[in-house]
Amino acid sequence: MKDTPETTDAKAEKPQVVQKVIELPKRPANTKAKPRYWLRASFVLLVVLPILLSTFYFAFIASDRYAVEVKFAVRSPSSEGGGADLSGLMGGMSSGGITTVDSYMVTDFLQSRDLIDKLEQRVDLRQMFDRDGIDYFSRFARDRPKEEFVEYLTWRINPYFDTSSQIITVEVQAFSPEVARLLATQVLALSAPLISHISWPARLH
User: Fold this and answer.
1) At residue 162, what are phi and psi to the nearest 5 degrees?
2) Strands laid side by side in the 66-73 sheet
3) Distance (Å, rounded) from C-alpha 101 to C-alpha 196?
4) Do 191 and 110 touch, CB atoms closer than 8 A?
5) 12 confidence band (pLDDT: 50, 70, 90)
6) Sequence-ordered alpha helix ranges (H) in the chain
7) Which band of pLDDT confidence, cut at 50, 70 and 90, is reported for residue 4?
């Protein structure tokens, strides 16, 4: 079959398709593995490892601690008595606020350097917390500064004031039951003058 002019023109006008292959950069094989690896590694370092170390420390290294609790209350001048009239009611409300303020005054003293100074005049505090038998992380070297010793003892002498019952609880911790009882007795004895001074007007009513 002979080509006609029409078919010849159609062949000439047929568009040519040019194919070009572009090579894309290859993705690293471990692109997805890196985030997962660091996530797992950070979980082990920040969560698993501290738990294992703390468990090992408390199970095999930490020294035994003993605690003694002392409880007492501060009496305000108007904490007792008071009539049923409006003035008595208002007096009772104000006395509750006074008792709270006075109780916090006592708890502040129990966490103060003044208490530590007075304790050191009675007992050898540094020897109690720097002796054989106390693990390295719990003991306090006696040659360290006084400011650090005061901060250290805030973890060993813990006062707490319950506003609902108006009772102050003092927990004294040490590394032997004898030392814990001795410290608790001394803390209570040193607090007694302040408590008596605050409560003295209440005993006059």
Assistant:
1) -90, 110
2) 66-73, 167-174, 157-162
3) 15
4) yes
5) low
6) 5-13, 33-43, 49-56, 86-110, 113-122, 125-128, 146-153, 177-204
7) low
